[in-house]
């Protein structure tokens, strides 16, 4: 049948509408797939960014742990005793302060600057020195160590020799209680 006002065949017009509808549905399906893929890609980017953030945070924490104000220590646990060795090169015995509570140990020390070490007049900050290499710590340093078990504070032994602080920290014996089941 021909619509004479426009010269179009109604059957042909209907067929064209069906083809257009098919193309629209295919376009919607493709757009939906693209949206899903885009969502997955964005999720992957977010996961990767979180991973990078964790890596950066880890590096920052490593830097903080190795920064000038930290004292280098090793702590080992053997036979219910913690053994701690702290490196304090150039520090005088009277410039070391150790505090301990039941489960927390704090070591404070003062490292002399180069001008103090070579007996030059200075205010402790080495002004006027042109460093070629600057790798030594100076100034106040502190290290706080949280221990997993309580310490027998009355039995602690401490020794300072050749720039090494050695602490022997006996742990409080934890009483084990047997629980009977009903």
TrEMBL record:
Report the domain of life of the source organism.
Archaea
Q: Which residues form the SHSP domain?
A: 62-182
Membrane-crossing ranges are: none
Q: In what ranges is there compositional bias, type Basic and acidic residues?
A: 11-22
Q: Which SUPFAM superfamilies match?
A: HSP20-like chaperones
- InterPro entries, alphabetically? A-crystallin/Hsp20_dom, HSP20-like_chaperone, Small_HSP
Q: A Pfam family for this UniProt protein?
A: HSP20
Q: Which UniProt keywords apply?
A: Capsid protein, Virion
Give the span(s) annotated as Disordered: 1-22
Which family, according to the similarity comment?
A: Belongs to the small heat shock protein (HSP20) family.
What is the name of this protein? Spore coat protein P
Q: Which organism is it from?
A: Methanobrevibacter curvatus
């Amino acid at each position: 049948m021909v619509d004479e006002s426009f010269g179009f065949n109604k059957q042909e017009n209907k067929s064209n509408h069906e083809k257009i509808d098919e193309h629209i549905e295919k376009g919607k399906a493709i757009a939906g797939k693209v949206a899903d893929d885009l969502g997955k890609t964005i999720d992957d980017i977010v996961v990767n960014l979180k991973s990078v953030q964790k890596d950066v945070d880890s590096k920052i924490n490593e830097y903080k742990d190795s920064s000038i104000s930290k004292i280098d220590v090793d702590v080992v646990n053997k036979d219910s005793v913690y053994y701690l060795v702290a490196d304090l090169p150039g520090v005088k015995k009277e410039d070391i302060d150790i505090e301990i509570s039941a489960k927390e140990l704090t070591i404070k020390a003062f490292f002399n600057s180069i001008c103090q070490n070579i007996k030059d007049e200075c205010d402790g900050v080495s002004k006027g020195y042109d460093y070629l290499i600057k790798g030594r710590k100076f100034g106040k340093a502190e290290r706080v160590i949280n221990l997993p078990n309580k310490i027998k504070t009355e039995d602690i032994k401490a020794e300072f020799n050749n720039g090494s602080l050695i602490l022997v920290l006996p742990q409080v014996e934890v009483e084990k209680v047997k629980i009977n089941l009903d």
